[in-house]
Amino acid sequence: MPLQDATGEVIGVLGVYQDVTERKRLEAQLRQSQKMEAIGRLAGGVAHDFNNLLTIISGNVHLLQHLPQDDPDFPQLLDDIRDAAERAAALTRQLLTFSRKQPTRPQTLDLNEIVIGSASLLKRLIGDGIEIRTQLSPAPVRVRADRGQLDRW
């Protein structure tokens, strides 16, 4: 604000200031900390998803090693391995899309087929001691979504 003499003439400026350097530094540290926490959560989620896919693949490979090739379950186990490998590739694509900020690749999918595939994989993993029940729609349930993102959830 202007500093005036007795006649009203401005002879200077009166001001108050506050050094906010430390506050700005702390805000930047907080933002960096929040970014690192978010990256840690993302990495943990990705590691968990990848571990699940690798468990499916290695579990089915182990089962295949102990089955004769003419066993009726043999082709289904091979399909499950292929599906898990495709999901792992989709997860990798999703990560690359995220890192490059590229758009997803939506396609028309039938949710009934996705549920059937997931249930089949789960049945093989958890064994006969637990029953999995699914309730599917009588008609196809079509959605437009990115397969990798849908499989992740």
Q: Can I get a quick summary?
A:
With 153 residues, the protein is mainly alpha-helical.
Question: How would you characterize this protein structure?
Answer:
The chain is mainly α and 153 residues long. Helices cover 61% and strands 11% of the residues. The strands form two sheets. It has a two-stranded antiparallel ribbon with strand order 1-2. Strands 3-4 form a two-stranded antiparallel sheet. Helix 1 (21-65) packs antiparallel against helix 2. The protein is elongated, with a radius of gyration of 29 Å. The model has no long low-confidence stretch (mean pLDDT 83).
Give the helix/strand layout.
Elements (H helix, E strand, L loop, with lengths): L1 E3 L5 E4 L7 H45 L8 H27 L5 E5 H16 L15 E5 H6 L1
Antiparallel strand pairs: 1-2, 3-4
Helix pairs in contact: 1-2
Identify the overall geometry.
elongated
Query: What ranges have pLDDT less than 50 throughout 5 or more consecutive residues?
Result: none
Spatial sequence of strands, sheet with the most strands: 1-2
Distance from N terminus to C terminus (CA atoms, Å) equals: 60 Å
Residues in helices, as a percent range: 55-70%
- By DSSP (H or I, 4+ residues per run), the number of helices equals 4
Q: Mean pLDDT, as a whole number?
A: 83
Largest sheet: 2 strands, antiparallel
Structural class: mainly alpha
What is the string of helix and strand elements?
EEHHEHEH
Kindly estimate the percentage of residues that lie in beta strands according to DSSP.
5-15%
Which radius of gyration do the C-alpha atoms yield? 29 Å
- Count of DSSP strands: 4
